[in-house]
Structure prediction request, 328 residues.
Amino acid sequence: MTELPAPQNYNVKFTYSATLDSNEAAKTQTENWIAQNYHAVIDMANLDRIGIADLCNKNSVYYVVASGVMTEVDWNVAKDYKYFLGQVGPNDDAEYNAGLAMGQYYKDTKNVKKVGIYGAFVPNPMHVNRLAGLITGLGGTYDGATGAAIAGKITQSVDSTKINIPGITVSYFDGFNPETTFGQFGAIAASQPDAFLSVGMATTFFAGSLNDANIEYADIDSFTADNYGHMNDGKLGYLAGKYASSVGPVWALIQSAANGTPIRDNGKAVSVLQNFAVAKTAAECNAFTEAEGPVWNKTVLDQIISTNEKNVSLASFKTLVENDGKTA
Prediction:
């Protein structure tokens, strides 16, 4: 675990977990935090979310989802938990559409004939849905399925032989293992694809190598100063990201509950959708970066933190979050 510096504007300590790669690891980490009297868990791992929600609820620890959303089945169970406060982020349709738009762009505008595809952390549902969209956008199928139905075909892993994209040669890999991943990537880079298309994490793992190899790449990530640099000075040619971080809004849900004035949806947990924005140039990317300070600074966040003196309605919360922290 890594302890992060306390935010300047709030008296709170954040601790970031080590990499979690299984449901059991997520459960153990949560149990450790509960034993150490942590007050809340912000989930960005997407591992056994219903199990973690139940564990937190039974131990009176607040739980929020800040990356992707729960499955519909899990949501329908967890939304009634007192200590599950809600989720903020793209739903499955938004994830699928982000991949779809990327695929369509590289097929119809870039006219690619040979691509490398990185599936990130399949079977993470957000990456599965993005991959389904990407394959469909490129005009392909997986195991005979197309569209959102592809996601239903990928339950545990991807069989690259089942990816069929007429007119486009595909080299596919996913996951991350320091002993094998860079070798897989290197083989694809050496083949000089027209583009390297990723449903997440490419800018983290491969940006430097892709820039050096002069291979255009696309990713679904975040609008950051580093990614602006990769667009301005490197070969990042397409970036889909959430302009407004979901962590700020879920923190507001936690603080509101800690104040004794939780924001609820008719007594149930809150669910707010965030969509993706797209940049294809450095100028477009710069427009989405935090050039003038973080989107969710204290002035903005305080507007959606409920207190005894200021009750924040669900409608007010949703309006600000869905408009990227802007009131107008």
Q: What stands out?
A: The mean pLDDT is 91. The two ends are 39 Å apart (CA to CA). DSSP finds 14 helices and 14 strands in the chain.
